[in-house]
Amino acid sequence: MAAVDYQPVASYAHAALDLARTRSPELPFHDFDLPGLTLRVATDVDNWLALTRRAVVDDPALRPTARRRIDVVSMDRVRHPEMPPSSSLGLANPVIVAEAMSALGIDGSHFHAYGLWRFFDPAAGQGVEMIENPKALPDWDFSFPMRDFLHWGLQSIGWRLVHSGTLGVNGRGALIIGAGGSGKSGTTLAGLTRGLQTVGDDYIALSLDSEKPRAYPLVKLMKQDPAGFARVGIDPAEFGLHQVNWQNKYEFEFSQLPGITPTKDLEIACILMPRIAHAERSRFSPLSPRVAMLNLAPSNLYQLPGGWRSGMDFMARVVRIAPAYSLELSTDPDEIAGAIGDFIAGLP
């Protein structure tokens, strides 16, 4: 079997990181105060800082005692002719790219269809993305810029970026997990509009630094489809929401709905996996750690590049500590919110 030739990727990564270090002092930047991290984003990509400010949390009150700064430079490749087009590397095979990243000791991702490369040096806390066409990025990038870099940055301090909703009572809460259409986001919205707490609806930061997992906010935006709004009795037009995104969901800040303010953190007491069951009353049933793992890990590991082994280990620890339950949902959002609040409050 022929040896994998990852030298073109290695050379490109080194050149991109070196260029980012040289150019970053000259570029507009913003520092985001996040749990566990300070994220400095410098860019020459039009509107990229504005999109990042729209989506990513920035709150000095979230600072824990131990924190790390990471620097990410987003660059419009066309403005830097010294960097060849990524198509010139002739690489679309993710195996070759993964081999190259491993050999270099860095994290990286490559979206061949978009000509988009991302590299992150965890030792230096330095990241760079080379963007061929800022107007033709993957759809999810417009909803959550910096997702890959926050994944790698949190990973470098032993935390994880987790694809999950959250609900809580008095500082204790649940991870709300499930595939699209399971009722995850609608359950979170039902709880929020009835007084429960949250640190996030889609992606959150999760730490295992203490006895129990602890969740923190990363994204300011919620997402909900028209059917989910209908189930909780809300007309999105009343709050100025008229346009849906690529997932047929409205994107909005928590503050756009009255009485909703994300909390700073939640101790995770359990994992809930909701299912739209149209039951008369919501019902909770224990799940094995194995089933919880099978539902928690795939969406996180599939969507987030690199760190799969450490990610599996992290998720396995979470499901061993936090008991998991299936949640068959009723049709009454008041009943759902009350049932979840009472259930969390009654956990040991």
Describe this structure in words.
The protein is α+β, with helices and mostly antiparallel strands and 348 residues long. The chain has ten helices and 16 strands. It has helices spanning 7-23, 48-55, 94-104, 139-143, 147-156, 184-192, 226-231, 289-303, 308-321, 333-345, and strands at residues 29-34, 37-43, 68-76, 107-111, 116-121, 126-131, 160-163, 165-169, 172-176, 203-207, 214-217, 221-224, 250-253, 266-279, 283-287, 324-330. The strands form three sheets. Strands 7, 8, 9, 10, 11, 14, 15 and 16 form an eight-stranded mixed β-sheet that branches. Helix 6 packs across helix 10.
- Put simply, the count of helices is 10
Give Rg in angstroms: 21 Å
Low-pLDDT runs of 5+ residues are none
Order of helices and strands: HEEHEHEEEHHEEEHEEEHEEEHHEH
SSE blueprint and pairings:
Blueprint: H1 7-23, E1 29-34, E2 37-43, H2 48-55, E3 68-76, H3 94-104, E4 107-111, E5 116-121, E6 126-131, H4 139-143, H5 147-156, E7 160-163, E8 165-169, E9 172-176, H6 184-192, E10 203-207, E11 214-217, E12 221-224, H7 226-231, E13 250-253, E14 266-279, E15 283-287, H8 289-303, H9 308-321, E16 324-330, H10 333-345
Parallel strand pairs: 2-3, 3-6, 9-14, 14-16
Antiparallel strand pairs: 1-2, 4-5, 5-6, 7-10, 8-9, 10-11, 11-14, 12-13, 15-16
Helix pairs in contact: 6-10, 8-9
Short description:
31% of the residues lie in helices and 28% in strands.
List its salient traits.
single chain; 348 residues; alpha+beta; 10 helices; 16 strands
